[in-house]
Amino acid sequence: MSRRRRLLAAIAGACWLGATLVLVAWGLGRLASDRWIWSQYLLWLPTIVALGVGGALLAGAWILDPHRSRWRTRHTASMLLAVAAGVLVVGELDLPRRLAGRGKADLRIVSWNASNQLLEYPPTLISDHQPDLVVVANPRWRMGREMFATTVSPGRARDAHVLWRSGFAIASRYPILEHGATMLGLRGVRAGMDPETDGDLAFDPGHAVFFVLDTSEALGHATVVWAIDMPSDPRQGRMRNAQIARSRIESWLVPDGRRGFPPADIVVGDLNVPRGSASLGVLCPSMRDAGGVLGTWPRRWALWQIDHTLYDPRSWALVRLWAIDPGVGTHRMLVCDLRGR
Known about the structure:
14 strands; six-stranded mixed β-sheet; alpha+beta
């Protein structure tokens, strides 16, 4: 074997090995999920990135040395690449369900994390999607209560029902019968802030709000919605955060003596974990993730779906979910159509 051919074979071998390591790390993250801090970082490796890097390395190895690469390494990497492609198409993009379609929706929800940025945009950015319910986390805009009401009732703000509480702006076509809020007791450090200089303002405790919509005339029952905003600090264990947040929600005390939020029919918010995370099952047990989008953050590239709409499959069925780039902020906007059972 010539010196040049040996060099190409060595480079090809390194490419096979690199592809295998990337795809094994991706697979391990999916299996271990965010049950431990070390595994949550593997879970955060986007499938599309693992496919791109793994596929490029495999292609390079085939081109450099198509005949002499080791059989086991070659086929292990190729099989892992095929599995990742299947997970992307079926598990994350949910193409079979998208193609099947589900008919007419009873409730359209627009949810968005406005990221506490001072934003200038017209309410038509939201109202053009004709939502029945709008939930915006961390709003910071020059939009008054009446103007925000037009996001669900253009031209007739008085027909909308608006709630501004605990870092959430909520507008609904349906009356809001009851609501409550709690901080989640977490200690995530906010981006760009330092506890030593900024003190307690540097910490994001997380927030949760519930509200009960009077949908009895339209659907035959009231609808309980939770809105949750979890801290984004990547150093915090997501499973531990979910356990603490769930405990705070269950121990919240109602003035009449009851404990805990009423059971949710729908949960929306920036949960700061990707779809399929084990921590979602702790924070929102028995709920189904609408899923089906490649990502919601960062807005321009959208590699991670950390914003979610979850629903109780016993009372709701998913019609459609899609993500929209609003052109402002750091998160994409989610639009979800649900049909009552």
